[in-house]
Design a protein that fits this description.
heterodimer; A: about 850 residues; alpha+beta; Aldehyde Oxidoreductase, domain 4; 7-stranded mixed β-sheet; 5-stranded mixed β-sheet; 21 helices; 30 strands; B: about 280 residues; Uridine Diphospho-n-acetylenolpyruvylglucosamine Reductase, domain 3; Enolase-like, domain 1; 3 domains; binds flavin-adenine dinucleotide
């Protein structure tokens, strides 16, 4: 074994490998949570409130109990679900108002869809049949639907015991923080100055639903020593710890498994009431129990995202230099606080200043309770909202000042030679090059050519008018430096872990604390490990999502898996190599100082003698001969706590064609050049950008979760919640520039949220650019054909939800509120 | 999918199916392609005691020529409609409209008879059937009867088919050589129509000699735009004539207002889309 041929693989990092997990995911061969089949498994169906706000009177379960196969029907108090306090891990202020959030409502429901009772049966069908027969006596209360109304004196209170509908107010002022001047002063100075103006706008971030492909599902098996919960979750580790803290269970008696999970987009960052109900029922009956939601249940009760009113004022010199920015937000929390819900808008506080040098900045956010489904993280969480606000504002101000919108941005952005740059909101951007990304994007887009075409169409008075929109975005991701989280009163750290187990045959098992749900982690992580250990890609297995193997981790969200988890893997690999080195030296009968490690091989400097890392793995397994004072083991574990966030950025350019007769918006061209630092797998990066773009464009054009005046969700099926498919999108022209991050050894930045964060304002800016010529000043998202047409044709030049009837659109009698339909039609 | 439980039969002839419906009473329902019916069961908006599946009745499938008519069996799928040569040649409007229905999966299961019997005001096949003066063949305990399109659609989700009757076939007159266009306006490719216009026109030597126009989702039932039809016939084909004639499109309609469109907007769309549909059909 003194000479091994060099069978080191070619460099894996940067290869566009096909995703190795896709075979089992796409063919449906994997077992999702709902596929877990345990002997004697019982099924749950949750009885939900049709009312947004109501007192619960008596609950009659007798008819339900008569259904054959029904094992039990429980109200909240029967299983103690009303006494549970589901956790919120992010108390953003010391005096934040926090209502008790039960697993099932006991005396009052606070949003339509809240659970009030649960049926347990031998089949899912029997449970569903019986759930229909549970009679709940409700006394309706006034719903609380409008954030501004909710904050007024004398408003109906969602939670009377809190004495207010205000959850918290969170303020950042650069004057007070010392990171800049006072925005209030900058604005009032601008009002007085002849060469400055203050421009104010109000934007709405509509409510969205994170429509993950796999509905949520939970199975709990209480029969073993450890209670086992399978759940379709993004956060198995957080869930385990939170279940222990919330329910007072010993943490070592719980095992949480997130098997393959079919998407999340933030929607599965939760300790869901249904997870707790499933656990409580399983404990009560001592039997395995399963809950799986229907799509309508998911749309109605899984947390929603966005939902803000943004009032933004910018002070600017008439030649286009920004002097100050003032942001006031109202953020709808819904009826309760989710796991990180109150902190979501606060993440935006650091992003309104975006890529610009803004000397004075104030951010003032008020979180409000309403009787709607709660909101929490949704792809981008706080940063898409902020990016939309600032990038819409950049276009509005450019129009007011008569500046070309890209020129206005250039006058104010951080130049590449100014990095690292500490912003007015106190973040230090390590690297970036906005000029490079923009130049490339403008060229790919043919910006000047499209502007000419736009002019020609205007002159001709074409029915289809062209609009161009820009979004030059950055984001903070790779959550997160633990100390920063501590300073924001977040309830956990932001580190991540990885362990590497070197098997006797030389294969590597890598146990990770992040928890993939569709991102392609197994592939990208295997590429990293293959390079760092010098083993073939095929010899690496990534293990995740089971707290028994992966006992320490903080899971997947905030584009952190690679930027934080990936670095833990690199650190663990370095430790493996360090542990293997003295053993290799012993095997080679050389001094450790003379050993070097390259491409999977330890060799003696200046000789052809060497052993592979696989040989060392076998040697420590046999353990017949190894150096004194060393353990026969080269496995390693590492935890990485980042020092900084990572700051991907990019330039997104969108052209739309607006049919001025119908208001229909057709995407015409979309170009984006993103800088995500080092690219591990270009195919996965492009896939993440594409998916992100689809979701961000969907916010601009298609999606909305509106409520009617009684507090009923109007988009309770996928007929009413308008999701685009590939047929509604166009070819995206994507490219990358790369300024590697200097705050992590791989140089990576996050990519998971970039497309979603960047694209929405590019599209809306384009729509407005097409129709401003008709006196249109704003159109609320989604910019539906009806809204665009209304804005063009109404004197006020705007359009939004207020112009629409509170009736879901038609669809086979599938509309959630098909009011006009005779009962069942001829069905 | 968890519907309430029901009994299920799969007859192999129309006679057996009619008998099964009669035996099943008022709560018996017909299952065709299931693309509307199954979702309704799944959402528990309906709970029939008996489901009579027409899927096993071979005589209900297929397209045939009967003299001056093209006859389409009620259980012919949307997909088969779009691929049928007889329809493409003689009743192009129904093929064109069917191509806009939903997506491949739905078109492979959904049926022409099912869509017409369901009579969703936003459904795409009723307006073409009305415009084309289709006849509906309905079988029941007392044998077979034929209903004209004008009498078939009664209200939202309500047709002339009696509770224990079956729609067996749809008969279309031939429109050989007519141009046709179904101009559908919706928000995303798979969505239902906000408004749509079914137009088929005959142009001879630059003159419009005949025109049939039906509107989707402009009332509880499909509406025939007779004002537009008469304004077109006899005119020399030109963009101006067509656009002028299209101004009559909203006459006699009563569109609803919902989250996707107000009634004014629907009326406006009917005019714009009628102009576009006729121009394309004549083109
Ligand atoms: C995702 C999706 C999108 C869709 N989009 C569109 C669209 O854009 N445009 C559109 O027009 N349609 C659309 N549809 C509906 C589709 O066209 C259905 O196929 C059609 O509406 C019903 O046809 P079916 O054969 O599936 O009938 P079923 O669903 O089986 O039956 C529908 C109703 O008709 C009754 N019925 C069926 N056949 C007969 C018969 N022979 N005699 C008497 N009664 C009968 C049934 O009892 C039931 O009440 C969509 C459906 C889905 C699922």
């Amino acid at each position: 074994m003194t000479t091994v041929e060099n069978n080191a693989p070619a460099q894996e990092i940067g290869r566009d490998r096909r995703r190795k997990e896709d075979r089992r995911l796409i063919t449906g061969r994997t077992r999702w949570t709902d596929n877990q089949a345990l002997t004697g498994l019982l099924h749950l169906s949750i009885v939900r409130s049709p009312f947004a706000h109501a007192e619960i009177g008596s609950i009659d379960t007798s008819a339900a109990k008569q259904i054959p196969g029904v094992v039990a029907v429980y109200t909240a108090s029967d299983i103690g679900a009303d006494a549970v306090q589901l956790p919120c891990a992010w108390p953003i202020t010391k005096d934040m108002k926090s209502p008790q959030r039960p697993a099932l409502a006991g005396s009052r429901v606070n949003f339509a869809g809240e659970g009030v009772a649960v049926v347990v049966a031998r089949s899912a069908a029997a449970a569903k049949d019986a759930a229909e027969l549970v009679e709940v006596d409700y006394t309706e209360l006034e719903p609380v639907l409008d954030m501004e109304e909710a904050l007024k004196e004398g408003a109906t209170l969602v939670h009377p015991e809190l004495g207010t509908n205000e959850n918290a107010q969170w303020v950042f002022d650069s004057g007070e923080a010392g990171s800049g001047g006072s925005a209030t002063e900058a604005l009032s100075a601008a009002e007085k100055a002849d060469d400055q103006v203050v421009i104010t706008r109000r934007f709405r971030q509509q409510r969205l639903v994170p429509v993950f492909m796999e509905p949520r599902s939970t199975v709990v098996d209480p029969s073993g020593e450890q209670l086992v919960m399978w759940s379709s979750t993004q956060v198995p580790h957080i869930l385990k710890t939170m279940l222990a803290l919330t329910l007072g269970l010993p943490e070592h008696k719980i095992r949480v498994i997130a098997p393959d999970v079919g998407g999340g987009f933030g929607g599965k960052i939760a300790v869901a009431p249904e997870e707790v109900v499933t656990l409580l029922v399983a404990q009560k009956l001592g039997k395995p129990v399963k809950w799986t939601e229907t799509r309508s249940e998911s749309l109605l009760t899984a947390h929603h995202g966005r939902d803000q009113i943004q009032d933004i004022s910018m002070a600017v010199t008439k030649d286009g230099i920004i002097k100050g920015l003032d942001v006031k937000l109202l953020a709808d929390m819904g009826a309760y606080l989710g796991l990180v819900g109150p902190g979501v808008p606060i993440l935006g506080a650091f992003m309104f200043n975006a890529i610009y040098k803004i000397p004075a900045y104030r951010f003032d956010c008020t979180n409000v309770f309403t009787t709607k489904t709660l909101t929490d993280a949704y792809r981008g969480a706080g940063r898409p909202e902020a990016t939309f606000g600032i990038e819409r504002m950049m276009d509005e101000v450019a129009v007011e000042l008569g500046l070309e919108p890209m020129e206005f941005r250039k006058k104010n952005w951080i130049k590449h030679e100014e990095f690292p740059f500490t912003t007015v909101s106190t973040l230090t951007y390590d690297t970036g090059n906005y000029e490079a990304a923009t130049d490339q994007a403008m060229q790919m887009f043919d910006y000047d050519g499209l502007r000419r075409e736009q002019e020609e169409r205007r002159k001709r008075g074409d029915v289809k008018q062209l609009g161009l929109g820009i979004s030059t975005f950055t984001e903070m991701c790779g959550l997160a430096p633990s100390r920063v989280l501590g300073s924001l009163d977040y309830g956990a750290g932001g580190w991540e872990t990885a362990s590497i187990r070197m098997l006797p045959t030389g294969k590597a098992e890598v146990v990770v604390g992040v928890s993939p749900h569709g991102q392609g982690h197994e592939t990208a992580f295997s590429q990293i490990i293959a390079d760092k250990l010098g083993v073939p890609f095929e010899d690496v297995e990534i293990l995740h999502g089971d707290t028994q193997s992966s006992y320490r981790g903080l899971d997947t969200y905030g584009s952190r898996s690679l930027a934080v988890g990936g670095i833990a893997m690199v650190k663990a690999a370095e430790k493996v190599v360090a542990k293997a080195k003295p053993i290799a030296a012993h095997m080679l009968e050389a001094s450790e100082d003379d050993i070097e490690f390259t491409a999977g091989k330890f060799s003696v400097k200046g000789t052809d003698k060497g052993v592979g890392i696989q040989d060392v793995a076998l040697a420590v397994f046999a353990a017949h001969d190894y150096p004194e004072g060393i353990e026969p083991d080269i496995d390693a574990h590492a935890t990485f706590d980042p020092e900084n966030f990572s700051y991907p950025h990019g330039t997104h350019l969108c052209a739309v064609e607006v049919d001025t007769e119908t208001g229909f918006v057709q995407l015409h061209k979309y170009v984006c050049v993103d800088d995500v630092g080092t690219v591990i797998n270009p195919l996965i990066v492009e896939g993440q950008i594409h998916g992100g773009l689809a979701q961000g464009i969907a916010q601009a054009l298609f999606e909305e979760a509106p409520y009617d005046e009684s507090g009923t969700l109007l988009s309770g099926t996928l007929v009413d919640y308008t999701l685009p498919s590939a047929a509604d999108l166009i070819n995206f022209d994507t490219a990358n520039t790369s300024t590697p991050s200097t705050t992590n050894p791989l140089g990576v930045k996050g990519v998971g949220e970039a497309g979603t964060i960047a694209s929405t304002p590019a599209v809306v800016n384009a729509v407005l650019d097409a129709v401003r010529q008709y006196g249109v000043s704003d159109i609320d998202m989604p910019t539906t054909p009806f809204r665009v047409w209304t804005a063009i044709n109404s004197a006020k030049g705007t359009a939004g939800r207020a112009d629409e009837a509170d009736v879901a659109s038609p669809g086979a009698g599938l509309g959630s509120t098909a009011k006009d339909m005779p009962e069942g039609g001829n069905l | 999918m968890i519907p309430a439980s029901f009994d299920y039969v799969r007859p192999t002839s129309v006679a057996e199916a009619v008998q099964a419906l009669a035996d099943g009473g008022d709560d018996a329902k017909i299952l065709a392609g299931g693309q509307s019916f199954i979702p309704v069961l799944r959402l528990r908006m309906g709970d029939p005691s008996l489901v009579v599946d027409l899927g096993g009745i071979a005589e209900l499938r297929g397209v045939r020529e009967e003299g001056d008519k093209i006859v389409v069996g009620a259980m012919t799928t949307h997909h088969d409609v779009t691929r049928d040569d007889l329809l493409n040649q003689h009743v192009k409007l129904i093929s064109e409209a069917t191509k806009t229905v939903a997506d491949f999966q739905v078109r492979h299961r959904g049926t022409l008879g099912g869509a017409l019997a369901h009579a969703d005001p936003a459904g795409d096949l009723a307006a073409p059937a009305l415009a084309l003066d289709a006849e509906f063949v309905i079988a029941g305990a007392n044998g077979e009867r034929t209903v004209a399109a004008g009498d078939f659609f009664e209200d939202y989700f309500t047709t002339a088919i009696g509770p224990q009757e079956i729609l067996t076939a749809i008969r279309f007159p031939k429109y050989t050589g007519w141009g046709a266009r179904y101009e559908k306006f919706n928000r995303v490719a798979q969505a239902w129509s906000i408004v749509a216009v079914a137009a088929t026109v005959k142009v001879e030597g630059g003159t419009i000699t005949d025109a049939r126009i039906g509107l989707t989702n402009m009332a509880g039932t499909p509406v025939r735009a007779r004002g537009v039809e008469s304004a077109l016939v006899g005119q020399t084909m030109s963009e101006e004539t067509v656009r002028a004639a299209a101004q009559a499109a909203a006459e006699g309609t009563s569109p609803t207002s919902d989250a996707d469109a107000g009634s004014d907007y629907r009326e406006h769309l009917a005019k714009v889309l009628t102009g576009r549909a006729v121009l394309a059909a004549a083109g």
